[in-house]
Amino acid sequence: MATAAAAKGGEKPALRKPVFVKVDQLKPVTNGHTLTVKVVSANPVPARGRSGGSGPAVGSRPARIAECLVGDETGVIVFTARNEQVDMLKPGNTAILRNARIDMFKGSMRLAVDKWGRVEVTDPASFTVKEDNNLSLVEYELVNVHE
């Protein structure tokens, strides 16, 4: 492999330039997206108290989660922000989402960034958000085709 040979030789492998996509290009159950979005709104999700034994470990803090409506000039989508991402994604902020993925929740698309991705707050973008094209309102259904 070229990357293994480059690592042994002391050279760093060449990094790929990120390919930025627009919100309207997102498809269900895909990952590896890099996009620049503006935050339209952010609503914290209340933490659920579990009485069962399958909850978080004793002494650990519950995860902070917020549902943020983010978008660009092509449309908007719901972004699930977790823990420190909640503080970064305030309404009016512009952010770059790297290695984002599309999760399905009750048949609709949600954008998320896990530990392998990155959320960066950046300079305000010059575009206006197209709020009438909400991709999270489109309901998808899994269809099994038997031949």
Automatic annotation (TrEMBL):
Cited Pfam families: OB_Ssb-like (PF21473)
The UniProt record lists the Single-stranded DNA binding protein Ssb-like OB fold domain at: 26-121
Q: Which InterPro entries does its entry note?
A: NA-bd_OB-fold, OB_Ssb-like
Protein name as catalogued: Single-stranded DNA binding protein Ssb-like OB fold domain-containing protein
The upper taxonomy is: Eukaryota, Viridiplantae, Streptophyta, Embryophyta, Tracheophyta
